[in-house]
Amino acid sequence: MKFTIVATVLLGLLLTPALAEYFQNVKSVKKQPFYRRINVGIGYQTLTIDSETLVAIIEDKTTRESWKTVWNYDTGFIASKVVSENICYISRMDRVVMPALSSIAVLAEETKNVKGERVVSKDIRYVISNRRIRDLSSYGPEIYSLCRGLTTYMAYEEQQQEQGSQVWYNQNSCYRLDVLNLLGIDYCQAQNV
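Above: the chain's sequence. Below: its structure in token form.
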């Protein structure tokens, strides 16, 4: 009986530091982001989701004009970089219209086999303001990295405009992002009236 008690105490003394170090290492290991290539129409888009930082990055790789968008669910902002224009737009995320971070991958997989058809069920239209953004640091490191060195403008959702002011825009001046066949995002140039 004394032998088993002594053996248990010694085993506990030997294993405690090793187990403590093991569990510290397990907690400090960062999960790998989810990455998926999804066919859309004539090209493809890549989707990367980091569930720890609450960020989704979608990049369009079509033969036409390419773009990249960052959806930061933690800060509540989205940023879109139009590669051909060398410009970036930042706007508030409409969480009612945008898919939840946890469901983006599943929804994109469901629509990826629909080739050549426009199945986007939700649209958001942003009007680009004349207000340039100079300090990108408050929007999160992913948005900072995306827009750093580019001319960056704030864009407001069409119904988020200041009360009492009506904004006119030319529909031909809009740049469209069809994101994973899930969401259509239009960035439209405001016209002075």
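The chain has a mean pLDDT of 78.
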